[in-house]
Amino acid sequence: MYKKILVPLEGTENDGIVLEHVRRMAKQSAAVLVLIQLHRVLKEHDEGLRKIQTEIGSAGYLKKEKAEAYLAELEQSFRKDGIEVLKEFLVSTEPEADTIVKYAEEKGCDLVALTNQHKTGLGSWFFLNIEEKVKRRSSLPLLLVAGPKDKEKS
């Protein structure tokens, strides 16, 4: 069925929701899991200004260190189940959804798996979720696994 499944991760407990589904899928179909975490930097015309956002000591650098440790831990867990894993921390100046779609296409993924982040009220009216944007921009199949619902604030 699917040979290469892209799983963009947040580094939060919500990841576990989608990871359990793709673990089962990968075991059954011998698919490769491609785990990524994104860090969006400001689009600067000056290359030096872009690099400052990820240099040692910056918030971007700290996020990268944390993400690499997290991805390595996940890789080890999946490999124990005989699942092949590719992992990468991506730095991009493009919107997250655009980066996900482009990466999936460039790496030959045939499925993108995301946690569906439920938004309610004004949040859903003002902002489209990343998964909704991926769905609109990609021709690839998209697996949306229901995540926890936001509670309406009264």
List keywords for this structure.
alpha/beta; Rossmann fold; single chain; 5-stranded parallel beta sheet; 154 residues
Characterize the structure shown:
It is a single chain. The protein is an alpha/beta fold and 154 residues long. The chain is 44% helix and 25% strand. The protein contains six helices and five strands; from the N terminus they run E-H-E-H-H-E-H-E-H-H-E. Strands 3-2-1-4-5 form a five-stranded parallel β-sheet, sandwiched between helices. Helix 1 (15-29) links the parallel strand 1 (4-9) and strand 2. The longest helix has 22 residues, at 59-80. Residues 122-127 have low confidence and may be disordered.
Highest CATH level, the class: Alpha Beta
Structural class by sheet pairing and helices? alpha/beta
As a percent range, the share of strand residues is: 25-35%
Helix content: 40-55%
Q: State the fourth-level CATH superfamily.
A: HUPs
Radius of gyration: 16 Å
Question: Largest sheet, order of strands side by side?
Answer: 3-2-1-4-5
**Assembly state:** single chain
How far do the termini sit from each other?
45 Å
Q: What's the tally of helices?
A: 6
The ordered H/E elements are EHEHHEHEHHE
Number of domains: 1
The CATH architecture can be given as 3-Layer(aba) Sandwich
Low-confidence stretches: 122-127
User: What average pLDDT do the residues reach?
Assistant: 84
Secondary structure: number of strands: 5
User: What do we call the CATH topology?
Assistant: Rossmann fold
